[in-house]
What does this fold into?
Amino acid sequence: MWSVLVSGLATGALFAATALVYNVMFSTSKVLSITTGHLAMLGGVFGAWFITGLGLPWIIGLVGAVVVGAAFGWLTDVLAIRRVLARSDEHLWLLSTLALATMVQQAVGLWWGTEPKPFPRLIPQDFGAGITDQKFWLPIAIAVGMALGLELFYRRTMYGKLFLAMSEDAFAARARGVPTDRIRAVSYVIAGALGALAGFAAGQLTFAYFALGLTLTLNGFIALAVGGLGSNVGALIGGAALGLLNAFSSYFVGGEFQQTISVGLLLLVLLLKPEGLLGSKNTRPV
Amino acid sequence: MNQAPKLLAGIVLGAALSLLGSAAVAQNIRIGWLSSLTGPLSSAALAENQGVQLAVEEINAAGGILGRQIELLTRDTAGDPTKAVNFAQQLAFSDKVDFVIGPVNSGEGLATTPVLAKAGIPTMVIGSIDQLTDAKKYPRAFRVINTNTQWIGSANDYALKTLKRTKVAVIGDTTGYGTSSAKTAQELLDKAGIKPVYNVLIDPNKTDLSDEMAKAKAAGADVVMPWSAATGLLGRLLNARGDMGWDVPVVGHPALMAAQIRALLNKPQYWENTFAAGYVSTTYDESGKLPARTQELVDKMRPRLGGKDIDVLFWWVAMGYDCVKIIEYAVKTAGSTDPAAVQKALENTPRYEGIYATYTWGPDQRNGFPDSNMAVNVANTFKDGSFRMAPR
It folds into this structure.
């Protein structure tokens, strides 16, 4: 039973990290990018390639994967966000980010192959470690670290405060001289780096697999909606709840109902508490 | 004034051209090859393609079939049923092929089989799910590969009769293929009077299987039988078994033998005590030799595959080769490419000796692969495209 709990928490931590990445991009652009899960996929695939394929030390592999993620984050802003937001208030970003996500997945599938490939062991540890195995604890540690780091970033740094200002009211922030386009680009670069970091940390759990992105995009979104859009603590709680629900429903009911139960959770939260567990109600005084 | 000579000349010229045209068309036997050369499961298609190409080259170099050269029209479906059905229509109604081989994946086959049946084109079926052949609905679709039931049946037989295990854990995945295979496995076990002690369907992307394996162990399983083509899931299953130190035999789908599994294992020894359904034609005997017909094809194929050890599953190559040779046999027996005559020739085939198998089709029998040509292999014994026989 402990193994169900720990593996559920670890998977949930990856969902939570994806939800945190959503939050970073959402704060500056009000966009829920379909490419969010693909950032983690890139972290896993490029991490495995740098370390196993090119024989680089894992720390270099980590830096390389994060750089690739950051670059893809920036590319997402340039190709799928900037012009779309400048021209329309409609939700066309849904299509532009879906197109980019599909393209990157196809490209990785052609280059890397469509079968899952192994992700290397990062810390020397016997494989019989059971629930203390690093494949479970690395993603959990990274997700918690990311949430703490983001809280500090928002509260203690000028850029963090600018993110919050844009999150509150982008037009007002621009009116007060905040370079909103540049801040948004920075947020996408940070989101890319964090997404790749999460994918790298969970690589031993997920393998380096080209089709991981869309699964994470969906489950990360459910974690975000359950926890509350914009809340980092909510993202952690939502991710953990979803991961545990998946693991225990699969254990007690069977894998064929796992997806239905996850999406059912989303529906339930949307009906009962649309702003999520820790989200704030969006009211504007008039 | 007198137009008659000109008119006559025109008619003669027109008739000559039309005769020339029809002769050119008649010269070639057109075979459509629906192959997923890119995308998921492309490794099987690429290997099959090698066999198809070699057979076509050999037959054409020897003067063709009944003096007609084979023209191969390859279409890459990328494993996508939508593309497959579009290409099937193109091959049938625009290219007007005489035969179709494929498609490679069962999901694509479900989409194309009715289209090709409607067009009345003799088809070599290489998908394993049972619904792809039906002597009444699809009278010209002849299956070359074994059925899924044969894979499951031979693995069940090995687990129950050879390993003498009775407490079976059946593990399927939640894809259509995994679900239906697990159901078939359960039905076959029921017939043998065995009720599985543990039965579960798992999401193929589930990140850790130690809980499921712990449940199977707690249920008292003495053999684990996974029915999934997802190498990630199978790799995780073998890792969970190894990490928990459970020395239970794993017997199941041929994907357990895939080279990709080796890379996913935490330790190479986690692949031991693992057996999968395979074929007599690509199984080494006790003296380490392949059947003579297979060895002959291996020797012919080796230069095309790089000249070194063969690193693809050779049964796919042999099956691709056989598909074209069966078409050659059918046209020669029928005396033409007339679809009705070809159907009659094929459905009166008591024993066609190919490389991959010795096939039998009858008026009501469209599955040509015999049970006796199935084998069970030791999963971690891949060598030069083939495997060792599981201990008997």
